Amino acid sequence: MPQAPAVVVVADTPIPPARRPRKITFATLEEKARWLDANASLDADLSYVRQVAGRFARAFDPNNHEGLARSLHRFVRDAIRYVPDPGEEEFADSETILRRGYDDCDGKSRLFVALCRAVGLQARIVPVFEKHPDRFVHVQAEVRWRGSQAVRGAEPGGWLLAELILKNCALGQAPDSLPRAADGSRVLT
Q1: What Cα–Cα distance (Å) separates residue 45 from each residue in 38, 42, 65, 108?
Q2: Is-contact 105 186, C-beta < 8 A?
Q3: Nearest CA to 139 among 75, 48, 76?
Q4: pLDDT for 139-177, tens place per residue?
Q5: Cα(150)–Cα(63) distance, rounded to whole angstroms?
Q6: Other Cβ atoms within 10 Å of 46 Cβ, number
Q7: Where does residue 157 fall: left (phi above 0), alpha (psi -120 to 50 degrees), or beta otherwise?
Q8: Do 152 and 172 meet the contact criterion of CB atoms below 8 Å apart?
Q9: For residue 176, what are the contacts with CB-CB under 8 A and spacing of at least 6?
């Protein structure tokens, strides 16, 4: 299987020497998705991430997991601008993404998963491949909670797709069901 390109980890804020940017090479494309998912778990414990997630959680009845998940999805989809990487891939932690207000699909998915985990919702990052299984093109997130299997659009196991870079793509909605721009392109956030 082809190797993913080398990746540079960066942040827009000053970084202490122990956390300065470094190059990371992934052995497989799936390894990149696992790395993002694992780092979303670490991000869920960051103070600012927990603070933001807590604000969302307090706005809902503790049993309204669906409302909370939909609200977090809309926030990351609409309030965090989609900005593609400038060349080489770059990653930032979820706190940095929240503070600067933008990232690519990797960062938006990582942030969504971190916010969900910070409030007790199950979430994960999933890779998206083109028709050829060696072409990794995108990452999305999925979320579930007790009872989510009854929600329209839920996949087996109650997982709902969280597409975070397509304008107006609702939680659980298949991206291919969205209208495209006049030139056939996707409408991005």
Answers
A1: 12, 6, 20, 17
A2: no
A3: 76
A4: 889 999 999 999 988 898 999 999 998 888 889 888 777
A5: 15
A6: 18
A7: left
A8: yes
A9: none
Protein fold of 7-177: C8orf32 fold (3.10.620)
Contact 52, 98 (CB under 8 A): yes
Of residues 108, 103, 145, the one with CA closest to residue 125:
108
Give the burial string for 112-143 (b: 16+ CB within 10 Å, else e): bbbbbbbbebbbbbebeeeeeeeebebbbbbb
pLDDT at 6 over 90: no
Place of tokens 């989609």: 82
Q: What is the pLDDT of residue 143?
A: 97
| CB distance 118 to 49 below 8 Å | yes
Per-domain boundaries in the chain: 7-177
What single-letter amino acid sits at 27?
A: A
Q: Please state the rounded mean pLDDT for residues 6-31.
A: 55
Match 């050829």 to its residue by tokens. Answer: 132
Query: Per the confidence metrics, is the pTM higher than 0.90?
Result: no
